Amino acid sequence: MRLERLNRTQQAVTLLQRGMRTSLVSHVSGLRSPVVRELHHEIHGDKPSGGPLPSLSGLLLSPRLRASASVFVALYRALGGTEVLHRVDLAALLKAHQLYQAQIEHLAAEATLGEPIDINAAWVIARDLTTGLARLHVCPHCAVHYLAGDLSRTALHCPLCILKRGRGWRRQRPPKVVPAETAPVPRIEATSPP
């Protein structure tokens, strides 16, 4: 019993150090909110910030934001396999976000993608993949898996192709959407989070 609580506390500390909101940390770790808030104060030296979690629709407002979120999702799915479409894989989520942050620094310098997503937005995306509110599609032109909201007009267009066209490449008709569930994705083995 004590070992289980110690493991949950260590998990909460790891998530708080990565910047996860206390409400999510409490939900994921199973620790009570006052305990998580106290841990947050010990780690960061201040009160946790309030407010709502990011919404999927807010994360997919522009082609640049959709492309940025799609980079994270590609890493997450490669690490967690198709199981991430059915349940949130915390180890894969943390590793994918760590890899995403390393890659996004290079892409942000080129102003290719939108604002980087934080760990809270990554959690929202992972959660919404399991509920079907977020879906993966495969672009028939560039073969990239991209993220789109369910029943959203953004699902009809690959954000990377839109960004390419905006840079003067040849304009093409919008691609036909191919469900990502039918397309294979290479699997990367996840290691435990740092």
TrEMBL record:
Protein name per UniProt: Flagellar transcriptional regulator FlhC
Record-level GO BP terms: bacterial-type flagellum organization; positive regulation of DNA-templated transcription; regulation of bacterial-type flagellum assembly
Signal peptide span: none
Sequence segments annotated as region (Disordered): 173-194
Phylogenetic lineage: Bacteria, Pseudomonadati, Pseudomonadota, Gammaproteobacteria, Chromatiales
GO molecular function: DNA binding; metal ion binding
Keyword set includes Zinc: yes
Keywords carried by this UniProt record: Activator, Bacterial flagellum biogenesis, Cell projection, Cilium, Cytoplasm, DNA-binding, Flagellum, Metal-binding, Transcription, Transcription regulation, Zinc
Classification via Pfam families: FlhC (PF05280)
